Protein 1
Amino acid sequence: MIERKYRRKRRRRYRAVVIDGKKIFRTTLFLAAAGIMIGVIVSAFGGEIKTVPEPSPPPETDAVEIAAEADNAEADSAVGEDAEAESEGVENAENAENTADRLKRLAALALGFDPFVPSGAVATEVRGAEIVNSYGIIADKDASAATPEPTAEPTPEAETEESADRPDIKPINAAQNARYDDYQIRIGNETSYGIDINEMLAAPLTFDMSGEGPKVLIVHTHATEAYAPEGAQQYSRGESDRSMETSENVVAVGDEAARILNERGIETLHDTALHDYPSFNGSYADALESTEQYLSDYPSIRMVLDIHRDSVVYDDGTMAKVVTEINGKKAAQLMFVVGTDENGLYNPDWRENMKLALKLQEKIDERYPDLMRYVNLRKNRFNGHTTHGSLIIEVGTSGNSLGEAKYGIELAVECIADFLNGLR
């Protein structure tokens, strides 16, 4: 396994919210200028559009009908000219629309955000905005799919003030098909975008795994995310679910993923830097800097997997752990998260990431139908613009143990490796 750490940036500290008024002012001016430019283009082309006149009512006298029949050839010729003009006008309008789209895309690329989305400029400055944890994604209704582990009935003596401050860790089956028998891929779509699952599954990916050099980068934007102790059935409200020790947090899960990929012939790099330390705000910007450095040093990289740990806590303080049993062993369930450009950050090709997530979901489901939660499509970008193979993988929750998380990622990555080897 190849491992590199980019730590020179660790001196940087972030404020929770940093808004550059000059940048927003420049963006406003740019937006106004671009709007005028696009309006001129659309007006120039759109003014030429002609429509075919609607036919006149049928004539009421035979004399008029005879006269109309005599002019049929001339009328047909006029209609043909109108249809040709309409076609040319529509084509000009489409060209104008394409030009406008290209200008908007160029502006977004240059600025790093979409100036035509009101939240775009602000999203670049609010560094803590992209928090991926689902928290309330699993609602109480999902408890119907739970299979709680047997626990000993507490004795009256055990019900102390201390135990009252230790809420339960509740095992639930959060598999995408936990309450269905059809085993179809399901999407938790938090955006306004429509997704045709079958169309994306049938479409080819825009990258392959041919050539030499590392192909996968594993990174941890929130590297300090940790897990519950092995066998824990309760947790203390005062205990942190984060750890600086890479043997205890999601970095250890990343080690397992990198090991399996490398063993199966897919050269993988693992960035073990703690991008959410010392400041959680700014962790995505920090991880992006490292990711871009890796991509610059290793242009062969095709996929960036950002491995996280989810957190699901109910209103009563109960903590959920998403778990299933495979081959007689408990495995934390996983979830792919795909970012988009809906909140304004530059990410025009997010559908390529979505295609990959759906194809991997299908591959894993074939072998382990209860391992994956639904695919989560989000408004935020989550650094998904760096490659056409950029995905977040949520491995378990804060209620799962590290052992369950490692086993879950092992099963999933075996399937991912098989899929990637098929792209050579």
Note: The chain has two domains: 21-125, 132-421.
Protein 2
Amino acid sequence: MKNKILSEFRFFMSMPRDMRLVLGTNMIYAFVLPIIDIFVGAYIMRSSNNPSMVAVYQLCVYTGIPFTFLINGFLLNKIKISRLYSFGMLLSGVSMIFMMTLSNISMVGVSISGFIMGASFGFFWANRDFLALDTTNDTNRNYYYGVETFFYTLTFIIVPAVVGWFLIQSGNLGWFGGNVVGAYKIVTGIVLLLTILASIVIHQHRFNNPKQKKFLYFHFDPLWRKMLGLASLKGMVQGYLVTAPAILIMTLVGNEGDLGTIQSVSGILTAFILYFLGRTTKPKHRIYIFAAGMTIFLVGALTNQILFSAFGVIVFVLCKVLFMPLHDIAYFPIQMQVIDLLSERENRSKYAYIFNHEFGLYLGRFFGLVLFIGLAFYVSRDFALRYSLVIVALIQMLSIPLAKNIMKHSYLEEK
């Protein structure tokens, strides 16, 4: 076992240094993402008991992301990419601090906090995507995303369990005067420290900014338009997976402790499967991984719809834990292969495609969240929680033939 671990470490160290530093930064920030994705929504739900407010928060987050992608594109002409990257990570801590300082959770306060968090994600993902693209190639991207999703999955096991336990114990044992808000403030402080540490790591190398300054284009190759369609489908499911699970668990299961425990049940096995897939699979296997993830998500959504109980939620969340990393480990290399091909053919900055891709994601996120808010407001909250996930899951199945077509054309044209 020891020799196997050492062998894998040596393989990791054989990768380019710039790629290892980007991975190292993302590994540290991976401890922050579960808190943002899970517990901020739970905090709003606990404070307001209004699932629509959670959805509005996420809509503001998603509105802030493409706006910041645009600002980031102009700033890259003057500021080092590592500084913009670290600023995005630090801004996520600032957003949480702003949320904790609100005396009353109101729609205005939640909207501002959401937009700030969206801005942090914009700076983080815009620069993270470019650095991942710039420091990898098609032969090592399965490994890159295998390692990244392996670590992200582990943190989504460990962090929810630990933070959930801490929040529950603070209430049960009377820590911070028995006020759970005080415990949330401690968690926010830890988030800020982790973002500082990640920022230090990313500054250990002089990364290259995009060489071409222009990044605003309105006409693209037909292959890219297909990629935007795939991005919209991905964005639609993203809108639900950062909103619905927290609301479902708080509504049908219990509290944050249950939420953290459920997230951890099948995650360890998933993490090692992901590492194995990243280490052993080739580009031609991506479509099979992609299809497997979509099918698992549909099974979870159907189970939740049929049972609509605590057990149904548990099955859905377990399926979500499997689906998300399987989807990402296949999706991102497909996206980057298309960007590599088209940026050379059209002689454009790779950041132009990263920026434009975000609007495809936003369109899907907006549609998904508006669908949820509309069903919750005009029909009922239970109807939205029970049936909208199935609607989204069925629409997502269209991603499989679309992704297959994109892969077929991108590799044929490259040859």
Note: The two ends are 41 Å apart (CA to CA).
Protein 3
Amino acid sequence: MPWRLHTSNSVLLSIATLTLVIMISDVDARGADPYSQIDPYWLLLHEPAVVEELQLTDKQFDAYQELLGELDLLFFPVRNKARDDAVAGLEKVVDQARRRLPAILQPSQLRRLNEILMWRLGTSALTQDDVAAKLQLDDSQRKRVQEIIEKIQVDVTAIEKEVSEGKPRAPLERKYTDLKTKEQKQIIRVLKTEQVDRWKKMLGTTFDVTQLGNTRFKAPPLVDTGEWMNSRPLALEELRGKVVVLHFYASGCINCIHNYPHYRDWHDRFQNNDLVMIGIHTPETEAERNLKGVRQKAEDEKLTFPILLDIQSENWNAWGNSMWPCVYLIDKQGYLRKFWPGELNWQGNNGEEYMRKQIELLLDEPTS
């Protein structure tokens, strides 16, 4: 039994660390996660730390990046579909990835990818049918595991609320870690020794989960509608080597208007540091389809950076955008790195500061 307790504690603490990192990151950038309901497997494929862990050869890396780039272009447009259509669309994309990756990765690499997925899922993995089957959990065990997770989640939600309200983080982090550790110890008691052993084997060697949360998605190309302000037509491909701040807005949207000072500040602050601001005006109302009016409002607000007029929502749909305003940060290699949906400083959020710091980090990265 001492061996069993030692093994389970090792599993518990590592998974608790992962969940803590994800929870605090989400609260820091409240509303800034465009992938909160997305299949974790799909997200892991876009994590640089995971790609590094797989130890790809140069040939594998090129094929891997080509596959993800192709699938990313299918992924973005499904994001703003009706829920059922979005879920079905994403399932098709993920299914393609699962079917085609074995032609690129070795069996040992595929196995390691699944192990990392287990680390990412934490205890919630035990509620999945395939994992429960591999562990040979009976119905009563599965029910008990679900009850434990749901009960702890009530307290977790309360902590997340306190963090979002700006209460001191350190004691809340400790409380959260204690809760998750308690959850996992309770789950361990539900499992038999051989089931704990199987779970440990499914996890494989320890993965440093604190490296997660840095996904890189191939940014969709801009659809040139033929209507630009303050610039000739631009393409993201020609902006390689520069950081691109791309934001969707509508001229009559009050939340968009509240973001204007931040856009002007970023444009003025960073325009000599390889940063390009691009606005995409997608109308929400009929009045916002009046191009003369849109141009006049941009001039009145001193929005001097390039603006693409997206009257038929072609870019909106290509990006799967679903909210005014939305801000995307694209790195020097053309990958989407961060995303903030909604007004940056809505109800006390610190979106402007958060995104400004992310811009600075991207500008500091090497060009290639």
Note: DSSP finds 14 helices and seven strands in the chain.
Protein 4
Amino acid sequence: MELTLHHAHAWDLTPQQAIQVQRELAGFVRVEPLARPPQTIAGLDMSVRAEAVQAAIVVLALPSLVVIDQAIWRGPVTWPYIPGLLSFREAPAVLHALKQLHAMPDVLMADAQGVAHPRRMGLAAHIGVLLDMPVLGVAKSRLTGVYVEPDDVAGAQSPLQDGDETIGAVLRTRVGVKPLFVSVGNRMTLAEAVALVFATRTRYRMPEPTRLAHHLSRDQS
């Protein structure tokens, strides 16, 4: 499958140049209602071992959560581990994996941050702007912002704030587990991102798209 990239940029950058790219791309994030109810959603995740990265994508039908497509891409790591700039390490691998799908899903769900990032440009936002499509981030830990711990009840949530700005939601998907940090990547509202997490939740802490992608990204077969 061919990908059309919007606001494309070089990847061989210094950290200072990468920060400037993030600041520029953040201006293109669109927080707006979905154009139509999604019929497919893809979870994406990646693992890094030594000098190799493996990106995995699993596409599910909605609302059944039946797996209808998947892809893996393995390649060399081309960017160092620098907190706040991880999308420059991970996005190229994700784009390679997406090219192997039969069709582009309606929504992407990344095991990563969206705008819940110091420069509002986590991996989910980076991919969302480059592809100009709906993407949300579902992260296991907080990168930035403050919040009140949500009640220990499945479905409880609280806002993730950076000053006066709401940059995400903190969700409790199951009783007795740590919350997840959900944020918009591009072209959806935070309420829609939260609703998609709950719509794809099963009996696990993580929603099914990113849970399956997480396991596939560690498959060494």
Note: Residues 15-217 form a domain with the archaeoglobus fulgidus dsm 4304 fold fold (CATH 3.30.2170.10).
